[in-house]
Amino acid sequence: MATLIDGKKVRDHNLEIMKGEVAELNAQGVYPCLCVIIVGSDPASRVYVNNKKKACENIGIVSREYAMPEETTTEELLSLIDELNADKSVSGILCQMPVPKHIDSKAVLERIDPAKDVDCFHPYNVGKLVQGDNVMLPCTPAGMVEMLDYMGVEISGKHCVIIGRSDIVGKPMALLMLQRNATVTICHSRTANLSEVCSQADILVAAVGRPNFVTADMVKDGAIILDVGINRMEDGKLCGDVNFAECEPKASMITPVPGGVGPMTITMLMRNTITAEKVAKNIK
Ligand code: NDP
């Protein structure tokens, strides 16, 4: 039986620490503030934005929402970002993705001041991450590292195999694991002998976006499995990228879906918002 890595427990542990930090900052007259921009009325985006707001309220971060209509132009969005970039009371800015198709999302992400880029999507922050010198954390990958640390896993020297090479999960996870001295392999849709490569992993990260993609033959005995996948099934239930029933008996630790990696992403967003404010105010 594998040990379950409980994302909600790790989240609550982190949020409790951050609550204390925010209270200390408030006592010095410093108020971390996160601005979330949402364009249009995508229901999934609405849920994500509401969850971010709730997390802010929970730990005392000031949250401001900017809801813009579907027909907003790129220029209008960029001009709002310019305003928020210039506003000293704003610690972090994020624009909920995806934005409507007519908006130039790359221009939007690149307009956010890197010092306020709490999603860590700006090329400057990605470059810093590559150099191992980043201040902002890529949220979902950093959440996974936090989970491993919480569970007392020694990352250094481990072989970490990541399935998926997206800019928001696979690639930044590889960089964080390299920073922690893991040996890293990144797999994708063109990887040959995927099952064989995965079965060499001490730490296997699944970020594919396909339900039950990872099967028992891809898992080494005693491996640690981190399942990033969030797939909505026909019955409305959420399913990960890992076939949990098959893989769990072979693993030493595994994250469930839901309640695994998912809760950690917003937690790391809160961490970045506090960090951004501290850096802006030169507070150690
Ligand atoms: P993307 O669709 O951007 O990337 C998927 C990756 O999987 C690609 O690199 C793709 O390879 C690879 N892939 C697809 N099919 C195969 C295959 N047959 N064999 C090997 N590799 C394959 O997804 P994301 O990284 O954005 O997200 C992945 C999952 O994680 C989704 O379910 C998403 O909902 C979830 N997610 C969860 C988050 C959380 O907070 N928990 C946050 C972000 C995402 P190629 O590059 O060759 O196409």
Task: Please specify the SSE layout and strand pairing.
Elements: E1 3-4, H1 7-27, E2 33-39, H2 43-59, E3 62-68, H3 74-86, E4 92-95, H4 105-111, H5 123-130, H6 139-150, E5 159-163, H7 170-179, E6 183-187, H8 194-198, E7 203-206, E8 224-227, E9 231-232, E10 238-239, H9 244-247, E11 253-254, H10 262-280
Parallel strand pairs: 1-11, 2-3, 2-4, 5-6, 5-7, 7-8, 8-11
Antiparallel strand pairs: 9-10
Helix pairs in contact: 1-10, 2-10, 3-4, 6-7, 6-10
* Coarse structural class: alpha/beta
Describe the largest sheet. 6 strands, parallel
What Rg, in angstroms, do the CA atoms define? 19 Å
Determine the fraction of residues in helical runs and give it as a percent range. 40-55%
Number of strands: 11
General form? globular
Q: What compounds sit in this structure?
A: NADPH dihydro-nicotinamide-adenine-dinucleotide phosphate
SSE string, helix = H, strand = E? EHEHEHEHHHEHEHEEEEHEH
Query: Strands across the major sheet, in which order?
Result: 1-11-8-7-5-6
Strand content: 15-25%
Mean pLDDT: 98
Cα separation of the termini: 42 Å
Poorly predicted runs are none
Count of runs of 4 or more consecutive helical residues: 10
List key phrases describing it.
single chain, 284 residues, alpha/beta, 15% strand, binds NADPH dihydro-nicotinamide-adenine-dinucleotide phosphate
